[in-house]
Amino acid sequence: MADPIDFYTPDPTVRELLATHPNLSLDVLSGLMLDGVPLTAIAEEVGTPCWVISADTLRKRAAQLLGAMKGAGLSVSAHFAVKANGHLAVLKILAESGMGADVVSGGELLRARKAGIPASRIVFSGVGKTDAELRLALEEDIAQINVESAEELEVLSGVAASLGREIDVALRVNPDVDAKTHAKITTGVAGNKFGIPYDEALGLYRQAQALPGLKPVGYAVHIGSQILTMEPYRAAYARIAELVRATRAAGMAVSVVDCGGGLGICYRDEGAGSPQALAGAMRSELGDLDVRLAIEPGRWIAAPAGVLLASVILRKAVTGGEPFIILDAAMNDLLRPSLYDAWHGILPLSAHDAGLAPEAAAIVGPVCESGDMFARNRQLPPLQRGARVALLDAGAYGSVMSSTYNARPLAAEVLVDGDRWSVIRPRQSVESLWASEVMPDGVRVEA
């Protein structure tokens, strides 16, 4: 598995983490820098916890991914997976970099439109779209809906017919290919809730031809997330290529293959998925089909662009064991370590702290849950009360998964662009947590 914590290999050092994160540097006076901005300056003015994301990294990674596709001779429609990071500023930057949007809810669809992404560049995926969401997609006239079941196909046809509309649909196929990633983020194995069983896809495609309001255009596949090797992709794409040929042999047209996303990054020392290798897998398995290809990257684009800043509330000594370093960030801010046992690099903001000899420590948050832990047995400088740290690779599945559990307001968000920075979401006030709550008549509230 690529993502879970591994207690048996040495942690990367400060220098090693900096080497794998080119947007970060350590200045002897200013401390940890994201692009041209000292992160301490943001922490001092905005406070912690605080999300910080690099506009330059978003642009560069979008360009690298699109360039890899072009370099392989592929004409590819790229749709950023909004579930990875849905901030309007992020979506706007990526739209200007040539990305459309892959959405999985009506809310994400409206976010993408608010950010200026044309409806013609939006694909709607997801296993459980409501009638209202399908109506919205039809009324917005988006590019494509990826249908995940026979039942959804019938519902969509009914909604489309009631509106007198027609929409392009692709059938999302479950190819029964194991992506060899964490069990909670694999989506292409038989038994997962996602997609149409491979052996049923051709028959359902034939049925879709006869349903009003639908224009079947092809197939979609997405086998999971944080994928680091190309073998699972090649296996899945080969199965889809067979399906395309069989569909055409049955006298039906296929013009689209949506290749999904899932390309992984290097959180620790596991290496990273290569856009060039992905483009090569797509070309070798699908390049001779004369179809329009699509991809839906999320994590690979956004994760390395962001960090979560936190401060040490206190250092709790443990007799005969590693100390607990208690941060003001918690699982309600960054859920991935608690949810997936995910590993995130942690770097001190202070150059002085970064130079100290490391020790083993448990890095935890203040939430009242034993699972509120970012790292165990992590080799870090001896962090004291008031020290500040950055949790790395938090630009994807970070702020979007935040909650206000334990009545903890949502953290502020900051965008760095070169040597400038600006707040793109102020810290939520405590009062706003209950501002929309209504006290029913007859319930007394003591002042």
Automatic annotation (TrEMBL):
Q: Quote the PROSITE patterns the UniProt record gives.
A: ODR_DC_2_1 (PS00878), ODR_DC_2_2 (PS00879)
Q: Which residues form the Orn/DAP/Arg decarboxylase 2 N-terminal domain?
A: 64-303
This entry's Enzyme Commission designation comes to 4.1.1.20
Residues with the N6-(pyridoxal phosphate)lysine modification:
K83
Highest taxon above the source species: Bacteria
Ligand binding (substrate): R299, R336, Y340, E369, Y397
- Give cofactor(s), names only: pyridoxal 5'-phosphate
- Give any GO molecular function from the UniProt entry: diaminopimelate decarboxylase activity
Q: Which reaction does it catalyse?
A: meso-2,6-diaminopimelate + H(+) = L-lysine + CO2
Q: Which family does it belong to?
A: Belongs to the Orn/Lys/Arg decarboxylase class-II family. LysA subfamily.
Function, in words: Specifically catalyzes the decarboxylation of meso-diaminopimelate (meso-DAP) to L-lysine.
UniProt xrefs under HAMAP family? LysA
Self-association state and partner proteins as the record states: Homodimer.
Protein name per Swiss-Prot or TrEMBL: Diaminopimelate decarboxylase
Q: Which organism is it from?
A: Acetobacter conturbans
